[in-house]
Amino acid sequence: MVLWNLVIDVLRDSMLAYAYWCNGNLGYGIVIVTFLARLALLPIGIRLARRAQVQQLAMQRIQPELDALRSKHKGNSRRLAEETHRLMMREGISPLGGLFGTFAQIPVFVALYSAVRRVTTVGGRFWWIADIAKPDAWLTIAATVFAVAAATGAPATSNRLPLMIVSGVVTAIALSRMAAGVGLYWGLSSLFGAVQSLVVGRPAPTSAA
Question: What is this structure's pTM?
Answer without folding.
Answer: 0.73
